[in-house]
Amino acid sequence: MRLAVLGAGAVGVAVTELAEEYGHDVVAIADSTHAAIDEHGLDAAPALEAKAAGDPLGSAHPADVFETEYDVLVEATPTTLGDAEPGFTHVRRALEADRHVVLANKGPVAERYDDLRMLERESAGSVRFEAAVGGAIPILSTIEDCTPAAVRAVRGVLNGTANFILTRMAAEGLDYEHVLAEAQDLGVAEADPTFDVDGTDAALKCVILANVLSEGGVSLSDADVVGIRNVPPSALDLAAEDGKTIRLVGEATRDGVRVGPRLVPENGAMAVSGTQNIVQIQTRHAGDLYSSGRGAGGPETATAVLSDVGRLPPIG
């Protein structure tokens, strides 16, 4: 497949670097201001080196990507809420041109799922978005294999930053602000951690899952979300006395989405530590299925993107 990559952050760069290993050619990569394009297959190293040095990625305009010959648009621009722009417009342009789309960007799938599916129905292209939920963990493909109708609910620890903070608070008896500063120093938390610690990131992932289970109709505004800012060390101490701990757990069902701090058994499956994620898929016929791994990161998320590309049929 010929890939056009929108977004030159950690995920877009990793997709570009790993594509050849998966048997695909990158013909374009763009950030918000510039693009590097070669329809015969891009030698991405000079473009990425220029980007890393603070120079333009290439000489083309990002909009020129849509004029090149590509089979799959990889949408890896930052997630935005509300209208999910510009990601949604990128997806629309690709589908209207009868191209496939693989998303790492959660916004269009969480906030405009019904619009996305309508565009897909009118296109010869397909949309896949494994990378938007849980990084390298094969959540959506597992649901697809089971069929969504046979899945009752999906629960999990879906944000590595929040999980790192709660793990350190429990292990060391430290307060939230202290551990947050540590996480920021280590690069585990962003300078503005709001998206992670307030539960928004986990909620978006659960909204996507609820849309898959319900065939649409769910957005972030429908979710019941509580973050971890107000979890005191004393709550973790009390939980430990009862053989439990606290994790930020998200749940997606056909009845809705809930995200918040939950008591879980200290030695149970949901008590993953550090930045690990875990997902429990409750099925009608196969019991509870668990998958655990890194839920974020450039190479990890890129593997989900490229696995999705491998599942797509040839264009035309």
Could you walk me through the main structural features you see in this protein, from its secondary elements to its overall organization?
The structure is a single chain. By secondary structure, this protein is an alpha/beta fold. It has 2 domains: 2-136 and 298-311, 3-Layer(aba) Sandwich (Rossmann fold), CATH 3.40.50.720; 140-294, Dihydrodipicolinate Reductase, domain 2 (2-Layer Sandwich). Helices cover 37% and strands 22% of the residues. The chain has helices spanning 10-18, 44-52, 87-96, 107-111, 113-121, 139-146, 160-172, 176-186, 194-197, 200-214, 233-241, 298-311; strands at residues 2-6, 25-30, 35-37, 72-75, 100-103, 127-128, 151-157, 224-225, 244-253, 256-265, 276-283, 288-294. It has a 6-stranded mixed β-sheet, sandwiched between helices. The radius of gyration is 20 Å and the shape is globular. The model has no long low-confidence stretch (mean pLDDT 94).
